[in-house]
Structures are given as structure tokens and as C-alpha cells.
UniProtKB/TrEMBL annotation:
InterPro entries: Anti-sigma-factor_SerPK, HATPase_C_sf, HATPase_dom. Pfam families: HATPase_c_2. GO terms for molecular function: ATP binding. It comes from Streptomyces similanensis. This is ATP-binding protein. Keywords: ATP-binding, Kinase, Nucleotide-binding, Serine/threonine-protein kinase, Transferase. CDD domains: HATPase_RsbW-like (cd16936). Residues 23-135 form the Histidine kinase/HSP90-like ATPase domain. The keyword Membrane does not apply.
Length: 145
């Protein structure tokens, strides 16, 4: 299986890019690097550091909680929606299993979605059009009106 990057989205589409990743720990830093590289030409006004942190958390969750009997991938896509940036992370897990937790200070896990909810304008989870689950976040003010 190879990694896939969509560098040249269709002009009629609001999608700015996409990547397909193996469900392995090495994919988390790869997702950060590729997102930084491929969002840079669009020069977003929102914090790319915040976006890469949230992508890291969501890709990690997708790898940990995605399930399939067949070979599977994690798919990350990013879109321009007016002045906002929307990022989606897809995996073959079950949408009902996505839960925002409020971890205690001594909890070792459970902060990923809490970070996303704290940083992003909004977040959403539900069924993915690829099957499984999608978790997305929206960063408002990414581009001027």
C-alpha cells in the first residue's frame, strides 16, 4: 500500500487537498508535515500550528479506534468554505464511539477531542461518506471575505 496525496484539486471543488495514510503511528507526523506543506500555498490566516495539532489528535484517534476486518486507511481532507477552513479525518470506526471526554488531570489519555473542541470554531462527528466515521473541525477566519 502506498501513501496518496491529492495536490491538485479540481478548480470547481472547495477541496484544497487530501491525503490517505496507513493506520500506523508513523502516519501522525507524516500528516502534520504534509498538511503544512500543502496548505502553505493557500496562505491561511488561521493558525497552521493549531490545525496541525488538531490533525495530529484526530489522526491518532482514527488509528487507535478505526476498525475493519479488511486492510484500511485513514483519509484526511481539507476544504475552503467561504472564509473558513474545514478539515475532515475519516476512518472505518463506528460514529457512535466518538465522545468528548473531560479527563482528570492525572488521566493519561482522552484529551484529543477536548483539544479540538477548545481550539476549533466547531467540530462534528458522524458517518463518513467512505463508510465508518468522520470527525471534522472548522477554523473560521482562515481567509478574508
Amino acid at each position: 500500500m502506498t501513501y496518496t496525496i491529492d495536490r491538485y484539486p479540481c478548480e470547481d471543488s472547495p477541496r484544497l487537498g487530501a491525503m490517505t495514510l496507513h493506520p500506523t503511528p508513523e502516519s501522525v507526523p507524516r500528516a502534520r508535515r504534509w498538511f503544512r506543506k500543502f496548505i502553505a500555498p493557500y496562505d491561511p490566516l488561521c493558525s497552521v500550528d493549531d490545525c496541525t495539532l488538531m490533525i495530529s489528535e484526530l489522526v491518532t484517534n482514527a488509528i487507535l479506534y478505526g476498525r475493519s476486518d479488511d486492510e484500511w486507511v485513514v483519509r484526511v481532507e481539507w476544504y475552503r468554505e467561504g472564509t473558513s477552513l474545514r478539515v475532515e479525518v475519516h476512518n472505518p470506526g463506528f460514529p457512535a464511539s466518538v465522545q468528548l471526554r473531560r479527563p482528570d488531570a492525572d488521566d493519561a489519555h482522552g484529551r484529543g477531542l477536548f483539544l479540538v473542541a477548545s481550539i476549533a470554531e466547531s467540530w462534528h462527528s458522524g458517518p463518513s461518506r467512505f463508510g465508518g466515521t468522520v470527525v471534522s473541525f472548522l477554523m473560521s477566519g482562515a481567509w478574508p471575505a
